């Protein structure tokens, strides 16, 4: 499961490899390609699908990217935003666009927004070298340099996707709990209840004996009491 955070491989065809800036891949067929330790494409956060899906149509969004990480990796979704918070003013001329860090300053200056944005924005800033379609860049279209450094409220500093991955690996327990909860939710076809917490812990503990392999997690979910004892109303229709 931890390969999802820092896999030393990915699957590419020639077109996607060109998009990622990875040489030596030819043809339309997807194949497994090894990645070096310093590759920015390791794990889900280097995938164009995730990076594009967490961007606006014409620009990146540190907020959306940070929120995605909090929800899907750390298992700590932020609360809904307060009402009447204006969207960022979109500048149509790319040469005049301010760095995303400066654009987000207005939200962080609002005391009502600051607490959540202090974490969401920082996670997203570390991915700013990836543009809205997941291509790597060192400067904005305006010519300004990209600053991918970030700092958590607890003082932890990190810079760029590599250090962000290392930070998330240090929080692997949160990720494994979140992944287990998501898989059990999908299998049961319902939201989890407080009584399911012990089941999640047991599934996670037993899967650890198999090095948290995805197959092991699925097997433990299928063997769990809530899955075995699903009511007729909970079972999917044929």
Q: What would your notes on this structure say?
A:
The protein has 238 residues and is mainly α. The protein has two domains: 40-169, no CATH class; 172-228. It is 44% helix and 6% strand. The protein has a two-stranded antiparallel sheet. A hairpin with a 5-residue loop joins strand 3 (149-151) and strand 4 (157-159). The radius of gyration is 20 Å and the shape is globular. The mean pLDDT is 89.
Features of the shown structure:
238 residues; two-stranded antiparallel ribbon; 4 strands; mainly alpha; globular; two-stranded antiparallel sheet; 6% strand; 12 helices; 2 domains
Per DSSP E runs of 2 or more residues, the count of β-strands stands at 4
Distance between the termini: 30 Å
User: What is the overall silhouette?
Assistant: globular
Helical fraction equals: 40-55%
Average residue-wise pLDDT: 89
Give the biggest sheet: 2 strands, antiparallel
Contiguous low-pLDDT stretches (5 residues minimum) are none
Q: H/E element string?
A: HEHEHHHHHEEHHHHH
Work out the strand percent. Answer: 5-15%
Number of helical runs? Answer: 12
User: How many whole angstroms does the radius of gyration measure?
Assistant: 20 Å
Strand order of the largest sheet: 1-2
Indicate the structural class: mainly alpha
């Amino acid at each position: 499961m931890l390969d999802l955070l820092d896999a030393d491989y990915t699957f590419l065809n020639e077109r996607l490899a060109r998009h990622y800036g990875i040489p030596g891949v030819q043809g339309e067929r997807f194949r497994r390609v090894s990645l070096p330790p310093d590759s920015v494409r390791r794990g889900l956060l280097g995938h164009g699908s995730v990076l594009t899906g967490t961007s606006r149509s014409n620009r990146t969004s540190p907020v959306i990217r940070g929120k995605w990480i909090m929800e899907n990796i750390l298992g700590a979704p932020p609360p809904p935003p307060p009402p009447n918070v204006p969207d960022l003013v979109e500048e149509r001329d790319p040469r005049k666009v301010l760095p995303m860090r400066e654009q987000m300053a207005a939200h962080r200056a609002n005391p009502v927004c600051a607490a959540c944005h202090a974490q969401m924005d920082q996670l997203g800033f570390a991915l700013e070298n990836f543009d809205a379609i997941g291509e790597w860049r060192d400067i904005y279209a305006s010519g300004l340099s990209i600053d991918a450094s970030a700092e958590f409220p607890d003082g932890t500093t990190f810079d760029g996707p590599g250090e962000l991955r290392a930070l998330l690996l240090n929080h692997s327990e949160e990720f494994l709990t979140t992944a287990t909860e998501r898989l059990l939710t999908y299998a049961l076809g319902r939201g989890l209840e407080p009584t399911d917490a012990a089941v999640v812990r047991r599934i996670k503990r037993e899967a650890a004996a198999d090095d948290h392999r995805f197959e092991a997690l699925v097997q433990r979910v299928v063997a769990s009491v809530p899955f075995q004892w699903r009511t007729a109303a909970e079972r999917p229709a044929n």
